[in-house]
Amino acid sequence: MEYELIVIGAGVWGTTAAHTASQLGIGPVLLVEKNPGVAQESSSKAGGIVTDLVWHPDDIEWVQRSRILYERALQSSGDASILQPYGMLTLAHPNRETLLGERARHLREKGIPAETWDLATIQQHYPELDRLASDTIGLWTPRDFHVNPTAYSEAAFREARSLGLEARLGTRVDRVEPTANGVRVIAGDEVWTARRVLVAAGTWSRNLLDTAGIRIPLRPYRVQLSSLDLPNGYHLPMLWDLDTDVYLVPDGPHNLLAGDGTRLFEHDPDNYQTTGDDEFIANIADQVTRFMSTADTAGLRSSWAGLCGGTPDRRPLIGSVAPGLYVAAGDQGFGVMRGPALGELAARVALDQAEAPALNPLREPFSEFPIRPGFTLEDDL
């Protein structure tokens, strides 16, 4: 049997791409994933923040589209865990006052609510933030929400299966081979053929395309997140501290996610430390107690690490790399925030229903380019 499209990778991008193709009814579609379930690798390890605080015009559009797709998944599945409307408070010192003010005005011009707060206003709304410096300022964006990437991907996957999607979970693809009439996908003793193949395997996409003699400009780097137990409970929104890059995400009445452990050097997606390192664990505890005294009694539940895909210009890689062979990679640390929109776009590009020339994955040759953070308030890093 020949498939019209095979999608390799079942994270947020891959499941959305498979769902989009299934909705279009273009012919048999197969989703292949090396893990036993969907969104069990880097997607599951993400912080899950969805915010309008992006500066690139494309990102603004993709976040808005992703919001719609996350909300649709919530409504169609009835799974309330898919998103939580916490709002986000971005903290900074006075030297960022102009930047925060500009971002607030930019959002309001687009009809998106945003307010700048001084310390008194911050503590009026969230008195638990009792250890902030007296000159702390904040940017409040109440529309921002937290998403559960695994719950979203499972909902998209279930709906796609009802539309005819075939799936092979727990199956690791060994190589891809472009042919005169399409692409072969080899996984152990199994071989599938398709007119088109979309590699959406996150940071592993580079290694897989290497098997076809294609090198994309993608460098995996490591990020870390921890889960803290606050036995007395707490009341907080999502928090992002610009000066330390620490972020906090509520995760139930006693559980708080905390991250800042970005390691901006290349890691092997088949061999990296998947737990938080000692330095990160010690540092994140100190950082959280710097915000609030209630964290003094916090305990560590667990810590973990995942990989992000850096690109030379910090933009995604979406498009053709050979006849019939496509890739969607390069999340740059905020792939979940834009994930549904980018997965949808990747499917449409692979099926010749959309174009994205600015995202051409071969627009720059592979090189040892410096890895830079992707999600920032500034556009000139």
Structure description:
This protein has 381 residues and is α+β, with helices and mostly antiparallel strands. The chain has two domains: 2-75 and 148-218 and 311-359, FAD/NAD(P)-binding domain, CATH 3.50.50; 86-144 and 221-308, 2-Layer Sandwich (D-Amino Acid Oxidase, Chain A, domain 2). The protein is 27% helix and 28% strand. It is built from eight helices and 20 strands. The chain has helices spanning 12-24, 57-77, 97-109, 119-125, 149-162, 205-210, 278-291, 335-350, and strands at 2-8, 29-33, 49-50, 83-84, 88-92, 115-117, 137-141, 145-147, 166-169, 175-178, 183-187, 190-199, 219-229, 238-241, 247-250, 255-259, 263-266, 299-310, 317-322, 325-329. Strands 5, 6, 7, 13, 14, 15, 16, 17 and 18 form a nine-stranded mixed beta sheet that branches. A hairpin with a 5-residue loop joins strand 14 and strand 15. Helix 1 runs parallel beside helix 5 (149-162) and helix 1 (12-24) runs parallel beside helix 8 (335-350). The longest helix has 21 residues, at 57-77. The chain is elongated and about 65 Å long. It starts with a strand and ends in a 31-residue tail after the last helix. The mean pLDDT is 95.
Provide a compact summary of the structure.
The protein has 381 residues and is α+β, with helices and mostly antiparallel strands. The protein is 27% helix and 28% strand. Strands 5, 6, 7, 13, 14, 15, 16, 17 and 18 form a nine-stranded mixed sheet that branches. Strands 1, 2, 9, 10, 11, 12, 19 and 20 form an eight-stranded mixed sheet that branches.
